[in-house]
Amino acid sequence: MWVIGTFNGLIRSKNQVDEATSDIDVQLKRRYDLIPNLMETVKGYMTHEKDTLVKLTEARVAAMQVHDNKGATLAEREQAENALSNTLKSLFAVSENYPDLKASQNFLQLQDELSDTENKIQAARRFYNGNVRDFNTKIQVFPTNMIAGMLKFTKYEFFQAAEAERQNVQVKF
Amino acid sequence: MYNEITANKRRSIILITIFIAIVVLLGYTYDRLWGMGGYGGVVIAIILSLIMTSISYFQGDKIALWTNNAKPITKEENRYVYNLVENLCITAGLPVPKIYIIEDTAINAFATGRKPELATIALTRGAIEKLTNEELEGVIAHELSHIKNYDIRFMMLVAVLVGVIAIMSDMMWRVRFFGGRRSNKDEGGGQLGAILLIIGIIFAILSPIIAELIKFAISRRREYLADASGALLTRYPDGLANALEKIAQDNQPMQHAAAATAHLYIANPFKSGGIKSWFSTHPPIADRIQKLRAMGR
């Protein structure tokens, strides 16, 4: 009886982690899709920023490659996505020099959406970490670990930056 | 943070156990004193209490929203608030609840809903305008934690139990005055019977009060739990701590608050001060702030 209960509990936990993974995916995809729109909007205005735009395209392509690569580790994925985040940040920083661009409704809306998507990616990662924590704990404590061992359940990894970035954001001037 | 959560959950269970023990004890005393067949009295009390509580709880949130002229918001009109709530829901793994705004300058919020799919949260205009991002996030996280921990359902259960105890004491009292039937087997009690009688009567008088006190204790415990769970969601306990400080300094009672729904709010909607502690639905604000700041260390 206990075995069945524990087995089911473990399956449920694992599925929650998998669900959380696909939740993150949803947000990542949303970001991939928004970026081409952004580039179209800024291209006309930011004629001197070819460099930044090229970097953005490259980062996006690289991230998508890692994303589609089934064998990529969590750390690699995180790295690729963070690189993309950073190039986006650079782009928005540079856009400060273009008042015409900043007056464009289209641009402002896209900026809003992308910023919101960044928040959603962070939120999804924290949710994922929460589920991973629960699952990892379950498979490690005694006596559940015996059944987990039989099922060949292994630990999941955490997103590191998700925890750290929250602290950085709180700095106030 | 995690310690706070497990400790609060454990204390809630202890309190509920005490509650159930009281009910069982009352039922036993009832049976011994008046010898009314078995636990029939308890069953009737439970049914009555369930009916009364269900009505008040199913309508409670609608009344709270209605008396405050709460308006539902749409994603387009209130992007800022909606995004805050939506992102926290993603972190918590909850569906996004219905969001309402109450036009009141006091800073407050409440959450209702038996389960996450049917949940609602309301924020006051004061909360939205006077609190910073992180503070408002802390407040919303606290409310979402109430929903996630099924606190509303929990308090319903507690209210039912309180009702059971109140009804049973009431029944015992009435039966006593109209002369209860005592089966012959109890006559042999003698001295023991007299003592039991006295204990039973004292118990019957005090138990409704004890039950109310326990209910308030449980309510306070769940508030601490929501504070801790909310802090876990945002990973930033100082956010809610700062918000609570602002609420304490503001010290504005809400314009349309009813005693029946007071426990739903994040902070006591009535003017604080005076005899609060034992009969208060919320723990003292200073205490909550202290606990939250301790989590951050």
What does this structure look like?
The complex is a heterodimer of chains A (173) and B (297). Chain A is mainly α. Chain A has helices spanning 2-43, 50-68, 74-94, 99-103, 105-140, 144-150, 160-169. Chain A has a single domain, classed as Up-down Bundle (de novo design (two linked rop proteins)), CATH 1.20.1440. Chain A has seven helices and no strands. Chain A is elongated, with a radius of gyration of 20 Å. Mean pLDDT of chain A is 82; it is low at 163-173. Chain B is mainly alpha-helical and 297 residues long. Chain B is built from nine helices and four strands, in the order ααβαβββαααααα. Chain B has a four-stranded mixed beta sheet with strand order 1-2-4-3. In chain B, a hairpin with a 7-residue loop joins β3 (109-112) and β4. In chain B, α5 (133-148) packs across α8 and α7 (191-234) crosses α8 (237-250). Chain B is elongated. The mean pLDDT of chain B is 77. Chains A and B meet through α1, α5 and α7 of A and α3 of B.
